[in-house]
Write a structure and sequence with these properties.
The protein is of the alpha/beta class and 237 residues long. It has a single domain, classed as NAD(P)-binding Rossmann-like Domain (Rossmann fold), CATH 3.40.50.720. Strands 3-2-1-4-5-6-7 form a 7-stranded parallel β-sheet, sandwiched between helices. Helix 4 links the parallel strand 4 and strand 5. Helix 3 packs parallel to helix 4. It binds NADP nicotinamide-adenine-dinucleotide phosphate.
Amino acid sequence: MKKAIVIGATSGIGKELARILHLNGYAVGMAGRRTELLRQLQGELPGSRVREIDVSSADEAMTLLKELIREMGGMDLAVIGSGVGFVNPGLYWKREKETIDVNVSGFAAVAGAAFKHFSDQGSGHIVGISSIAALRGSSEAPAYNASKAFVSNYLEGLRQKAIKSGAAIAVTDIRPGFVDTAMMKGKGLFWVSSPETAALQIYQAIARKKKRAYVTKRWSLIALALKVMPDWIYDRF
Ligand SMILES: NC(=O)c1ccc[n+]([C@@H]2O[C@H](COP(=O)([O-])OP(=O)(O)OC[C@H]3O[C@@H](n4cnc5c(N)ncnc54)[C@H](OP(=O)(O)O)[C@@H]3O)[C@@H](O)[C@H]2O)c1
């Protein structure tokens, strides 16, 4: 039986993905800070395991992830969906810092620990949930967009590292557009998908071991527009 660990499984996209992985025959380990929600989901998914992990305590998070891997008897798939996001045009440092602690330091810590595990094992699959926001900066949420650029770039680095080492480690960068979860904030939202639809498309990208996937698929059009848009137009948004 394949074993998957989803970090950030207490709500939203990660929770739905844990359900889909379970339905598709994976033994699932789930992590996040809200233990009560983890226990509820564990009750729904027989045989699953849970661990309270706060990725912003990076050293502790790496130790706890290793413990969960040991408890599960291994790991074939690591999904890192933990993330926070704030609309923060006032640049309040508390929010910028939390975004960096969770989405940058926390992400690098657990992605690195997962990569080392797969390196030792000679195979595995790392999936990081970045965002369409990775493509350009944002005046409304500077730290969030920058943190997602970090996630996507870090994943590309891990992919190159895997290829150079010859290990059979797949790396998938998931870039959602708007998904109707607690995190979705802001004005002028469009093409909003349900977490169920987003998780299903993420599962399909995982099954195909895609390098990167926009979720839902039509967000690849927005991605293209963002990539080619000159600064003088982008800066007016
Ligand atoms: N919703 C969107 O429109 C959208 C768009 C693009 C990308 N994304 C990305 O998708 C991912 C999932 O977000 P979501 O939309 O499903 O929102 P969500 O429901 O708020 O889920 C966020 C998840 O991250 C976990 N998390 C937050 N801080 C954490 C920490 N310090 N340690 C461990 N886990 C932590 C949360 O668990 P606890 O609070 O229990 O710790 C929760 O399970 C995020 O990385 C987000 O940036 C979302």
